[in-house]
Amino acid sequence: MAGRALIVIDMQYDFCPGGALAVAGGDEIIPTVNRLIASHDHVVLTQDWHPAGHSSFASSHPGKAPFETVEMAYGPQTLWPDHCIQGTRGAAFHDALEWTKAELVIRKGFRGTIDSYSAFFENDHTTPTGLGGYLRERGIPDVTLCGLATDFCVAFSAIDAVRQGLATTVVLDACRGIDLGGSLAAMTEKMRAAGVTLA
Description:
Elements: E1 4-9, H1 30-39, E2 42-48, E3 69-72, E4 75-78, E5 104-108, H2 131-138, E6 142-148, H3 150-163, E7 167-176, H4 183-194, E8 197-198
Parallel strand pairs: 1-2, 1-6, 2-5, 6-7, 7-8
Antiparallel strand pairs: 3-4
Helix pairs in contact: 3-4
């Protein structure tokens, strides 16, 4: 689709079954994602890309376990298992993902002291990834999002896309969620309230 960019969020091995932070059924959406890639003129991918010992890893906080929450300088932070470490197999895009036509790959989470869910901003909500500027310079006003996980990186990206003035759609059939303590329903409602079209 001309004038619309598809943003494929974090289709990496560590978020698929067998990975360090597996999303249930994460690999099942790949055929749908591939169809979306084929139907869009502009494709952007995000790639979680953490240095070893990242501050969002539970292993970096003695006595803390994955999925506990700690307070960081930028606010509450969920602690995760070590995942998507730069250069590892877990950080690689899934081999079944037909991603070669992507025009841009946005790597996020590479700053050791701050996590990054959104394709547009780090978790301080002020440090940009550059994606907003890229889309503006390309004259692309509409975005469609898909990928992993619905209630974290997809939702944060979609809400930030609306804040960037972009007409934003999330294709739910091409997403899968983690659902930590009801996060899937909560973030779906937040997306709807922000003005995201849920398709």
